[in-house]
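Thread: quick sanity check before group meeting

JM: Hey all, I'm pulling together slides for Thursday and realized we never actually wrote out the predicted structure for the chain we discussed last week. Dropping the sequence here so it's in one place. If anyone has concerns about the input, flag it before I start.
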Amino acid sequence: MENCGCNKQKRSYHFNVTEVVDGKVKEAYNFNFGGHHDLVALIEKTVALGNITEKHAKELVTGVRLLHHVLKKYPENEMFKAFMPHLEDFKHALKAEIKGE
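JM (edit): ok, ran it. Output follows.
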């Protein structure tokens, strides 16, 4: 899976979400997230497809990785269990597109 953005090296990311209201920035929440995927590499590969902006590639890659992480943590949750196959199908299609298959 050379083109997937993962090389099994443990990576750690810190997310700091702020809210801007009337020009004032206020911290909303923050959290750490880890795994073996190189989010930057995945974003670059997604942008290189040429059919998505960098901003949207960042949102897509981050959202998919976070959602997948949560679904895997709760495999017995009926709602998550029902959605997981669809997310897996989407991830495989995206990986295939990145690889040019």
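AS: nice. The helical segments are 39-48, 54-73, 78-99. The chain has a mean pLDDT of 91.
JM: adding both to the slides.
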